[in-house]
Design goal:
Layout lengths: L1 H16 L11 E3 L5 E3 L19 E2 L9 E2 L9 E2 L13 E2 L5 E14 L11 E7 L3 E7 L1 E2 L3 E6 L2 E5 L10 E3 L1 H6 L5 E6 L2 E10 L10 E11 L1
Antiparallel strand pairs: 1-2, 1-4, 3-5, 6-14, 7-16, 8-15, 9-14, 9-16, 10-13, 11-12, 11-15
Keywords: Signal
Length: about 230
């Protein structure tokens, strides 16, 4: 008689838990109130062990459930429905690098940009925006060019990732093209990581000095390359 009652409890629990046996959850182990373990893959078979690490489940959508089944990690089914097993690791974000990384393939050659600015003011320039596409993890270089005047705030996908800097004063002197400005004239520059894929980059001229505030159009350049 006891065996019949236990089997009835097991079958009832398996039936109640069956509503969870869909797509993403097939094969997950559960433990019911009678202490028996069930598998979504076979609702009425007993499991003595489950290979690998027990899943950690996220839960959502309150449900009606009378069995009181729980996951082996302790998540209870009578309160919440287990969510799909997803990778919750946050994606890598762009960051500023302390120096120049080794250069390999160039994905985007030096591109000159214009930054409209209210002349005779210390206000930052308008933002320069562009969507770039890179085939693999890359280095995003931002540099002053033309007149030595610009420090840049650098944004990737709407997040500020850093500010360029240089050894030379912001005195509006001739700085040359980007590489010359960086290597020979102390022009402001910075190196930033950029992950594979499409990204919205943003640049803004900040830190306007007395020598440069009369300029109504700031100039700068950027390049994207694969590091060695």
């Amino acid at each position: 008689m006891r065996d019949i009652f236990g089997l009835a409890t097991l079958l009832f629990c398996g039936t109640a838990c069956a509503q969870f046996a869909s797509g993403d959850f097939s094969g997950m182990p559960v433990m019911c109130q009678n202490g028996k373990s069930l598998s979504f893959r076979n609702q009425f078979s007993l499991l003595t062990d489950f290979p690998g690490k027990a899943p950690t489940l996220s839960c959502s959508e309150p449900i009606q459930e009378t069995c009181g089944c729980v996951c082996r990690d302790g998540a209870t089914f009578n309160q919440t429905r287990p969510g799909s097993l997803i990778d919750v690791t946050p994606p890598p974000v762009s960051q500023q690098l302390p120096g120049k990384p080794c250069m390999a393939d160039i994905f985007v050659s030096w591109k000159n940009i214009d930054l409209p600015h209210n002349a005779h003011s210390y206000e930052p320039s308008e933002m320069y925006d562009e969507v770039v596409h890179v085939p693999e993890d890359s280095v995003f270089v931002v540099a002053d060019s033309a007149q030595r005047c610009q420090h840049f705030e650098v944004y990737v996908d709407g997040e500020k990732v850093g500010v360029t800097n240089g050894d030379g004063p912001l005195d509006a002197s001739d700085c040359g093209k980007a590489e010359t400005c960086i290597e020979k004239n102390g022009g402001s520059h910075g190196y930033f990581t950029l992950q594979k894929g499409s990204h919205a980059i943003g640049l803004r001229w900040i830190g306007i000095t007395d020598a440069c505030k009369h300029i109504d159009l700031g100039r700068g350049s950027f390049q994207i390359y694969r590091k060695c």
